[in-house]
Amino acid sequence: MNYTAYRLYLYPFEPLHFGYGGQRGNVLPTLPYIPGRALRGALAGWANKNGILPDTGSEFMKIFGEMTTPGADAYTVSFPFCYLNGMPPAPLSLFEVKGGGGHPRHMPLRQNTYRLAWRRKSWASFDPADYVLDFLCRDEWPAEIEEYNLQPLKQAVVEDGKLYPAHSPATLLRAAHDEDTGRVGEGGESGGLHAEEVLPRAEVTGRSPFSEHFYSGDLVFDGDNKRLASLFKALNDASQPFRDAKNEYDWKQAGRRNLVFLGRRLTPAAVFVSETVKPDVPECQPGDTRVTLTFTSDARTADRNTNPHPFSPSLWQSCPGLAGAEKIRCFSARASTNGAVHVPGTSFSPLGTVPVLQAGSCVYLEKAKLEVINELAWKGFMGTGGDTRNGFGRFIVNDSVHKIDMEQGA
Questions:
Q1: Do 192 and 122 share a structural domain?
Q2: Residue 28 host element (H or E)
Q3: Structurally, how many domains does the chain consist of?
Q4: Do 183 and 262 fall within a single domain?
Q5: What is the rounded distance in angstroms from the CA atom of residue 304 to the CA atom of residue 171?
Q6: 3-class DSSP state for residue 356?
Q7: Could you tell me if 292 and 278 are in contact, meaning their C-beta atoms sit under 8 angstroms apart?
Q8: Can you give the pTM of this predicted structure?
Q9: pLDDT tens readout for residues 197-235
Q10: What is the CATH number of the domain that holds 328?
Q11: Which tens digit of pLDDT belongs to each residue from 18-30?
Q12: Which residue range forms the structural domain that includes residue 360?
């Protein structure tokens, strides 16, 4: 299959909320990203609103409807999780040395980066700047380190091997919530205020790594499908007038053809796409059988009732190159996801609560067939497991994040 991908940018004009789970006390939590299901509904509305694909046609539902729609399997497309500034969660294999630099949230960024201590170092010459240890790339486990106290590195995001502090959701007070739906801002008789977590809207705040707030992800589809190619080319064409020489967008001037509405509350956002992108394919030696993977989005199994945690290679046998692989080490976490999607012309469709492997989970596999490394990289770009249309199951074959030396191994 000829996969094609666009880098997608979203600039919301208002704060965002994508609920998951039940209300916690008087606070409704939000997902820390724009889920693929919300993007699917938003782009469906965009295609219909701009007369590119009417919602009454069968092709519309094959592209934007559920995978159970007859003929939908002929329209391979993956709507991504969109993270703030395009930075996914840091790998769960990262641990920090207490007193070796402090939590990145509480420390000024050192040259806008925290170096990953991905190679074994001499403890006698420990550099406090390298206080983050990646145990997917080391010989020992965290429990085997006796010289220093370690703790998992949390609330951090990663970009090209550089760590940054994650952005904390803000909390806003909302109107009384509806007891039947558990949603705020829908009336109710209690008359009280409730708090709601929100993600920041697009803005420019200064010169920090998060000086400009936007959301980004990679939209992947079957480039041989002419309908899909023409649909997303139209979105790309609409982005051209707003792109400058630095490949930045004048999102405040976005017009109708660059406007989408996200989530149940239809939060307006400017949308743009850049030129075609490709997944990073790390170098490896012919005949090598070692590979490490890090999930950049939550992952589901094909059977929604099967819990993907703890990680087992047998659950991902459909991935090229992983058949027969054995797990050597794994750092993973389990979570759950729920929500709903609204596609124009259809009813509001709840997705239900499903167990997932949390984004940031990573694994070192032995006996993988790395002669298909390029195909494996594209599979990770597209997603594996269940509900890949909504962006679940994306992973990277590690090189730039963990800086694995594939020739020498972990």
A1: no
A2: strand 27-28
A3: 3
A4: yes
A5: 32
A6: strand
A7: no
A8: 0.84
A9: 888 888 866 555 556 789 999 999 988 888 888 888 888
A10: 3.30.70
A11: 876 666 667 788 8
A12: 290-397
